[in-house]
Design a protein that fits this description.
disordered C terminus, Immunoglobulin-like, about 325 residues, mainly beta, 4-stranded mixed beta sheet, Collagen-bd_Cna-like_B-typ_dom, transmembrane helix, 5-stranded antiparallel beta sheet, 2 helices, single chain, Strep_pil_link_sf, rod-shaped
Length: about 325
Amino acid sequence: MTDNTDNDVPYVAFTNDYDTKPIDVVVNKQWEGVSKDEQVPVIVQLEWTGGENGHGVQATFELNADNNWTTTISGLPSATTTHGRITYTVVETKVKVGSSYKTLDESGFEAKYAYSEKAGTYTYTVTNSKKYVELDASTITVKKTVVGKAAQSDFKFTLTASGNNKDSVIWPEDSGQSLTATVSKDALSNLTEGQASANTTFLGTLRFPASDGVYTFDVKENSGDALTGWVYDTDTVIVTVTVTKGEAAVSYGYADGDADSATRDAAAFTNRYVAVSSLPLTGGPSERDWLIGGAGLGLLALLLIGGAGIWRGKQRLL
């Protein structure tokens, strides 16, 4: 038997010098949880191992859609006089990413192998699935600040994916592709110099394809139950998750003019309490409206009475 390490053809013939019945090796390629558009050509090696430290690469071949993801290598010996019994293994070595081939680790895929034998035919199945990087959602922090008054209610925040590749994010089961975090009013009950701050985090695990990529998320405050006197922060904070070499890092970004943009280690939101007396006159009549209106009516009545007295005086002079 010869070590055919440098052979790069889909079939290599062996000399069956041990007079054993030759065998056939079938290699099949399968995909698991990978859309058809994402299924790309792969390079697979058929390796052999025998006695006396004998080993080598018998064949290197590409599996792709054109060959229906399968190949057969026929007439392989199960033993030779030099190396005794021969065993064969299949290893996926490269995956086509774009116009070039990358190693399995670099490609964002992982492979698992299955083996069966029937009537002298050995079948190997290589199954690829996406390899994921996990991010504990608790690494995404929200900072809440109240100014002017202690919090009167809890504050809730929602995290949603917003980038073009948002469909690649794997959310916790039953999350509805969003996460919610809460800052309780108790955490914001004691003011220092007129304000109080508290942090919270999201719960669950987010998963991303292991290949390098950038993912963006929006964090917003839910202000549907805004209380009278409070001016809620309506800004959106952008959370960026950058996946590089199997690691995920989190950063925060703010829109121009966001007063909280100096906070770089959290998605920051500030709500301010404004006294009712300084609020603009909008909506229906308030107590302040009635007081102003009542005073106006009283002044009008005095003017009318005074005007009537002057008119009567003029009448007497005629």
